Amino acid sequence: MPSTVPVWILLAATLLVGGVAALARPNQEPGDIDARLVKLGVVLPLVFTALYVWLGSTTSPGSWVIAVVSAVAVTVALAWRLPPHDGRFVLVGLAVSAISVSSISFPSDWTWAMPAGAAALALGVVVGWRRPMPQLGLGLLAVTALSRLLDAAPTTVAYVLVLPLALGLAVTSCMPVAVEAVSSGAMLPVAFTLFSVSPTFLDPGSREFGWSTGPLVEHGPAAVNTPIPLTVLAATATIVVAVTSIHLKRVRTAVVT
Questions:
Q1: Closest alpha carbon to 242 in 231, 234, 254
Q2: What pLDDT is stored for residue 4 in this prediction?
Q3: In 3-state terms, what secondary structure has residue 70?
Q4: How far apart are CA 117 and CA 162, in angstroms?
Q5: What secondary structure does DSSP assign to the chain, as a single string?
């Protein structure tokens, strides 16, 4: 069974988060800690774990949908109470969690995929740094997630090129943020297992797990794997909710100021 999120994407996300943390509010005093961010870092992992255990680790699509809706609602509610940039970063983390619903695998002779993905990521980082556009980055993530319902070729292009571009653009568009927000937002793709792990239980063909000591076998042409279409729609809806929340939060902040 392939990794839910390609290793190179995880590495890129780690480097991005590290860069955000290094540049996060240099004027912030060590003792200047927002209690809301501390609560976020404590509450979200507990909520995600409870929902995964009670509703997300079953073979019932209905229970899984309830778990996802509940987790998204709690995340948005907590992010809404944060300062604009911090809440935006947490919502971006939620969207990145949703895109992990699908995995991509391609043969070893696709030597162009890694450099092309790295170039797309770098482009997203540069654009996001110079001209922050988190909504555009998340919009591209939504398109990438929804592309799983199309033919193989557009989906593969989306996951190899559009996904790293969107990831770089969305993350760097949220700087600067508090270090606590970086920690909370960065842990979402890891802690939110309702997208990265639970969907495998919904697909009868993906419920076999085990270790193999045999040699690595090529699995043919490039492919993006997703358990069932319902998970794609749920992931896309989650990203749309994140985009909408960021927009409404920005509008509310502009009205208040």
A1: 234
A2: 41
A3: helix
A4: 8
A5: ---SS-HHHHHHHHHHHHHHHHHS-TT--TT---HHHHHHHHHHHHHHHHHIIIIITSS-HHHHHHHHHHHHHHHHHHHHTS-HHHHHHHHHHHHHHHHTTSEEE--TT-TTHHHHHHHHHHHHHHHHHHS--HHHHHHHHHHHHHGGGS-HHHHHHIIIIIHHHHHHHHHHTT-S--HHHHHHHHHHHHH-HHHHTTHHHH-GGG-------SPP---SS-EEE-S-HHHHHHHHHHHHHHHHHHHHHHHHHHHH-
193-229 per-position pLDDT tens digit: 788 777 766 765 555 444 444 454 445 555 556 668 8
- What six digits make up the tokens of 127? 């654009």
In the numeric block, which tokens belong to residue 143?
A: 């398109």
Q: pLDDT tens digits, residue range 121-170?
A: 999 999 998 998 888 999 999 999 888 887 666 777 888 889 999 999 99
Residue with tokens 């709690």: 74
Phi, psi values for residue 91, rounded to 5° = -65, -35
